[in-house]
Design a protein that fits this description.
By secondary structure, the protein is an all-alpha fold. It has five helices and no strands. The termini are close together.
Length: 67
């Protein structure tokens, strides 16, 4: 599972709507969708913004993806 998939699963598991997070991040719904579905590359700044909006440590989604 890649980082975007981990984020998507976390949002689904916790009942968090992508539109809610997009608003908290100051992004369009389209940008949020593209990031979470892996259609757009996520920058480090995007990742940090998203983690702050969700209220999780930066390491959370990275730890899931280590081999």
């Amino acid at each position: 599972m890649n980082v975007a998939q981990s984020i998507q699963a976390y949002l689904q598991d916790h009942g968090i709507k992508q539109t809610f997070i997009a608003e908290k991040c100051g992004w369009s719904k389209q940008k949020m969708s593209h990031i979470v579905n892996g259609k757009s590359k996520m920058t480090v700044e995007d990742y940090q913004t998203l983690c702050r909006a969700i209220g999780v440590p930066y390491e959370l989604f990275l730890e899931d993806n280590q081999d």
